Amino acid sequence: MPRRFLFLLGILMFIAFQQTEAQVVVFDTVGNTVISADTIVKEAKTAKPVKVGKAQKPHSPQKATIMSACLPGLGQIYNKKWWKVPIVYAGLGGLGYLVYDNYYEYNSYLRAYEFKTGDLPEGETLNDHETELANHYAANQLQTYKESYRRDFEFYCILTVAWYGLNIVDACVDGHLYNYDISDDLSLSIDPYLRSTETPIKMPHYAQVGLSFKLNF
Asked: What is the pLDDT of residues 50-70, one digit of tens each?
């Protein structure tokens, strides 16, 4: 009796031990591979959490406009139009030089004219360039050149302001078109067009010649 009891107890302990050591398996329906449930649990514990990236801020045309208004070319950099920055500053530099040169010549001819007419303020003297102009030209000629340089000075001032404004407008337009879809599907093809015409009576055939426009979008 005790032997049977011990034998039965041993069988029960063996079955219990096997159940605790048993592994649950999962069958992959695609590759028919067996995956241990313990492996799945371990991978779930060791897997690193996926970091969610920050949402990208939308491109702001208003910001590009303000940046170019504060500093020419800055809006173009914000719009990633780097190649436009040298053009902006080349225009401003060239126009700035013309403004300065015409203003300098205007003042030179003005002082030479005042010296010729006796209106030069007392105590002021002419420099070498102004003295040369006073000795070389008559009063009426000095007045003509003076007015010409004054008009050119004002004209280039207007062009400089216009170029500055164009820089702002360009940044604003590029800002609005920053996310515009310009892909290979958008294309315009221009092909020659030639078709002969037939008449019901015996006459020479004439051809219709033209251009064919095809817009793909």
From this structure: 455 556 688 899 999 999 999
User: Which residue, 171, 181, 159, is CA-closest to 63?
Assistant: 171
Distance in angstroms (rounded) separating the CA atoms of residues 213 and 193: 9
- 92-115, pLDDT tens digit by residue? 999 999 999 999 999 999 999 999
- Which pLDDT belongs to residue 78? 94
Cβ–Cβ < 8 Å for 120, 114: yes
Q: For residue 27, which of 41, 40, 44, 42 has the smallest C-alpha distance?
A: 40
Cα distance between residue 194 and residue 22, in whole Å? 83
Amino acid letter for position 114: E
What is the total count of domains within the chain? 2
CB burial class (10 A; 0-12, 13-18, 19+) of residue 76? buried
Q: Are 29 and 37 in contact (CB under 8 A)?
A: no
Range of the domain at 207: 187-216
In terms of domains, do 70 and 166 share one?
yes
Say which amino acid occupies 21.
Answer: E
Is residue 5 situated within a structural domain? no
Are the C-beta atoms of 156 and 95 separated by less than 8 Å?
yes
Cβ proximity of 175 and 63 under 8 Å: yes
**In this structure, are residues 164 and 88 in contact, taking their beta carbons and an 8 Å threshold?**
no
pLDDT band of 134, cuts 50, 70, 90: very high
C-alpha span between 102 and 108 (Å, rounded): 10
Is residue 206 over pLDDT 50?
yes
